[in-house]
């Protein structure tokens, strides 16, 4: 297969370079479908290293998902233990969701791709590792707010789809922006505007 300068092969840095390059290609191309030849050319490493480090392309994508989701799960766990009122916690989380999709706009599409294309056992493992912790966290956060008398009772699963769906669609909307507005650049200024909008829109929607 396509190769490149593999002088960095067989080093821990090469594995991380492959992951970082795959992430960059997905962000720049607004896609989760990248080829090994494209990855080799962009990274300057031999595509055979994908098999060496990850077994195959699916293994690479799974490793990228695990890398990106690790910080998300840690952040949610930290948030649940934070000494703050329910509304503040939820607003902090909403901001974190927007920041996450700004940094890794492919994250939810990649998870869905792997769940859809995996064997049932692996799909269940991915759901248990990355979907259920977030839904469980929403159940806790909303439950705290309801108990405190500041949130209306809402379905945590529906809330998950509302929040994640809104962030996912916006940060994959480059072509909508290109043809319907005067820009297709999802820069920090636009991120900040959308973060404020989504935070107020969603949180206000469940306040008593």
Write the layout of secondary structure elements.
Blueprint: H1 12-29, H2 36-43, H3 48-54, H4 57-80, H5 86-103, H6 107-117, H7 120-148, H8 156-170, H9 174-180, H10 188-206
Helix pairs in contact: 1-2, 1-4, 3-4, 4-5, 4-6, 4-7, 5-7, 5-8, 5-10, 6-7, 7-8
Structural description of this entry:
This protein is mainly alpha-helical and 208 residues long. It has two domains: 1-55, Arc Repressor Mutant, subunit A; 58-206, Tetracycline Repressor, domain 2. Helices cover 75% and strands 0% of the residues. It is built from ten helices and no strands. Helix 3 crosses helix 4 and helix 6 crosses helix 7 (120-148). It is globular. The chain starts with 11 loop residues before the first helix and ends with a helix.
Structure in a nutshell:
By secondary structure, the protein is mainly α.
Mean pLDDT: 91
Let me know the CATH homologous superfamily of the largest domain. Tetracycline Repressor, domain 2
- CATH level 3 topology of the largest domain: Tetracycline Repressor, domain 2
Sum up the overall morphology in one term: globular
Strand proportion: under 5%
Question: Mind summarizing the main beta sheet?
Answer: none
What CATH architecture of the largest domain do you see? Answer: Orthogonal Bundle
Give the helix proportion (percent range).
over 70%
Global structural class: mainly alpha
What's the number of structural domains?
A: 2
Could you tell me the number of beta strands? Answer: 0
Uncertain regions: pLDDT < 50 for 5+ in a row? 1-8
């Amino acid at each position: 297969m396509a190769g490149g300068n593999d002088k960095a092969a067989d080093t821990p840095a090469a594995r991380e370079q492959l992951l970082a390059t795959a992430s960059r290609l997905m962000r720049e191309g607004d896609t989760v479908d990248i080829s090994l030849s494209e990855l080799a050319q962009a990274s300057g490493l031999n595509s055979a290293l994908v098999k060496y480090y990850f077994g195959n392309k699916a293994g690479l994508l799974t490793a990228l998902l695990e890398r990106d989701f690790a910080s998300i799960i840690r952040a949610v766990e930290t948030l649940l233990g934070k000494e703050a009122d329910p509304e503040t916690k939820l607003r902090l989380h909403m901001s974190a969701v927007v920041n996450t999709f700004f940094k890794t706009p492919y994250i939810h599409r990649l998870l869905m791709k792997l769940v859809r294309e995996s064997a049932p056992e692996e799909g269940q493992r991915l759901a248990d590792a990355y979907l259920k912790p977030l839904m469980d966290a929403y159940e806790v956060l909303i439950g705290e707010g309801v108990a405190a008398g500041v949130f209306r009772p809402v379905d945590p699963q529906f809330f998950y789809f509302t929040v994640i769906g809104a962030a996912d669609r916006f940060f994959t909307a480059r072509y909508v922006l290109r043809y319907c507005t005067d820009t297709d650049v999802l820069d920090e200024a636009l991120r900040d505007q959308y973060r404020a909008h989504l935070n107020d829109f969603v949180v206000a929607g469940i306040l008593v």
